[in-house]
Amino acid sequence: MNSIKILIVSWVALFLTVPWWFNNISNKWLNLPDWGLYAMVAAIIYSLLLAIIIQKFWEISDNEE
Amino acid sequence: MKSETALLGPGGITFLGIYILSLILIGWFGKKARKENSLSDFYLAGRGMGLLVLFLTLYATQYSGNTLVGFAGRAYREGYQALVLVTLLSAAVGAFIVYAPRLYRLSKKHKFITPADYVHFRFKNNKLTLFASSLCLMALANYILTNLKAIGYIVVSVTGGVVPFAYGVIALSLVMVIYETMGGMRSVAWTDSLQGIILMIGVITIFITIQIEYGGFEFIYNVIQESNPTKFIPPTFTQKLSWLSTLCLGFFGISIYPHAVQRIYSANNEKTLKRSIQIMAFMPIVTTLFMVVVGLTALALFPGLDRQASEGATLLVLKDLSQRGAIGTGMMVLFLSATIAAIMSTVDSALLSMSSIITKDFYTRLRPSKSQAELTRIGKMISWAIMAFSVYLAIVLPQTIWRLLEIKLELLIQVSPAIFLGLYFKKITSKSILWGMTFGTLFAVSTMVANKLGVDIPAKPFGVHAGVWGLIINLAIVFILEKINQSNNEEVI
Predict the structure, then answer these.
(1) Which residues lie closer than 8 Å to B302 by C-beta, 6 or more apart?
(2) A-chain residues within 8 Å CB-CB of B105?
(3) β-strand A32-33 against A28-29: which pairing, if any?
(4) CB B135: neighbour CB atoms within 10 A?
(5) A56: how many CB neighbours lie within 10 A of its CB?
């Protein structure tokens, strides 16, 4: 994956971390409002995604000049 | 003698004092480890930072006093919507992945010291280089001033006013500038390492204590449901746009703070840099998220605080834990040390970065014949001058002027096209980048200043930060000028 693709993947993932889908009064999930839980889990997944991208693709983006 | 309102007694204050003075000793060791009298050695630790030091200095620099005090305050006011702050700092790491590998390789090859060194290497346009440097300087100056002010307030809280605001600012600034000018980046990074460890332990400890003492998310949910049910309402569409706009500031603004870029230059090899950034990806979870929980706990415990009082949310929770007997003086000292460490590690890094920009981007252009040793000496003098002036401003500036200074990411974000586009689009010209940066900055600054002066212009039109609108204008101008340039070239052919 080159850096432009990494940029796109990163921004798609960032876009999805925003709780766009929640509009009504929230329900309780694991002691959090559902949209709050979504935002928190999405933030954790985004961190994991970054760690995976670094692990798998850093060397490739490294040699692409 | 302990004042009625002091957070610490004489023993705690003495311990804190010893910790702060020990930083000068670390600075001295940094000086002893110097390998040569050059700008690269002074400002980038000879480009020899190993994994542990690089990670800890990146961590300590990125998480300022604002993380420990300001983020909890924001969580108090905004409730669960403050969870955006977790992703905000992750977004900066996301940006590192995009630009750091290529910029690092170029910096090794072409011996960059400052971010503007890359801009000049790429675009060879003096006006653009100086403009980018000026924006970096303004953002850093703001960073130093706001953190110095925060440090003064913490000293007053710790000592119950026995040590006045001005004396606190002067004393801690003196410590910072002494160890910074002794060993430059090496001293700063080593002190950052100690500060980073204290910061991490402090944040994790307070989070765990809150879980045990109050009951964590369950307690927060049940209490807020009774006292502040509006905090459960999902963000409106405008607030969601604002959420996305905040992430934009993190990605294109926080990631290119000059002191962060210089840490990328300082890595001893690419593997070290890769691992450090990989670990950094998880730091928002164990730092920002934990501080948001502290703020939400404060909201559950002390509802009804105004904006100013909510800024003290963290200290209120600490005091409550202390009164319940859940924490002793030791933990109070630990957390206050963590707060002071977070601020000092940010200020010293920003100070070093400002000094490098003035020396390398401005002074060497006026006096290109100066030797590296002379430039390093001048850089140190510049550090003292910046710190003295910053301390003076932190003490004397009236609040109305402070409000105008609260613009940093909005400015810095305008530099990002020069770095991101410059690195990946070979044909892009300096002219379009310069015009984009100029109009983006003009829009962001005029909107923010007008808003702060009370003109009926929102700081976030349609929920999007003025700086992000500025970036959109910036990129649009770059795109249009590049298209015109392209069609002109085709006509010539």
Answers:
(1) B313, B316
(2) 62, 65
(3) antiparallel
(4) 24
(5) 10
Give how far B98 is from chain A: nearest CA, Å.
6
Residues B94-98: what's their mean pLDDT?
94
**Can you tell me the mean pLDDT for B232-236?**
90
Measure Cα distances from B345 to B62, B84, B152, B352, B428 in Å: 9, 24, 15, 11, 37
Residue A28 DSSP label: E
- C-alpha–C-alpha distance, residues B250 and B91, integer Å: 5
Instruction: Report how many Cβ contacts below 8 Å link chain A to chain B.
Output: 118
Is B378 a residue whose pLDDT tops 90? yes
What pLDDT, in 10s, does the model give residues A15-27? Answer: 999 999 988 777 8
Domains of chain B: 10-400 (1.20.1730.10), 425-493 (no CATH)
Question: What ipTM describes this predicted complex?
Answer: 0.91
Cα B493 to Cα B488: distance, rounded to the nearest angstrom: 9
pLDDT in tens, B272-328: 999 999 999 999 999 999 999 999 999 999 988 888 788 888 888 988 888 887 777
Length of chain B: 493
pLDDT tens digits for range B330-365? 778 888 888 888 888 888 889 999 999 999 999 998
How many Å lie between the alpha carbon of A51 and the closest alpha carbon of chain B?
5
Confidence of residue A49 (pLDDT cuts 50, 70, 90): very high
DSSP B438: H
Cβ contact (<8 Å) for B278 and A55? yes
Domain ranges of chain A: 3-62
**Cα–Cα dist B477/B282, whole Å:** 36
State the greatest distance between any 2 C-alpha atoms of chain B, in Å, as a whole number.
83
Most B CBs within 10 Å: which of A18, A23, A45, A64, as the mutation test of the B interface?
A18
Residue B198 one-letter amino acid: I
The contact set of B with A (CB < 8 A) is: 80, 83-84, 86-87, 90-91, 93-95, 97-99, 101-102, 105, 216-218, 220-221, 232-235, 240, 243-244, 247, 251, 270, 274, 277-278, 281-282, 284-285, 289, 420, 423-424
Q: What are the pLDDT digits (tens) for B31-74?
A: 998 888 888 898 898 898 999 999 999 998 888 777 877 888 88
Closest approach of B265 to chain A, Cα-based (Å): 15
**Beta-carbon neighbour count of residue B324 at 10 Å?**
10
Element (H, E) at B382: helix B372-396
Paired strand residues for B49: B267
**Overall residue count recorded for chain A in this entry:** 65
Query: Is the CB of residue B170 less than 8 Å from the CB of residue B391?
Result: yes
A29's enclosing H/E stretch is: strand A28-29
Q: What is the pLDDT of residue A27?
A: 81
Arithmetic mean of pLDDT, B414-436: 94
**Contact by Cβ (8 Å): B234, B84:** no
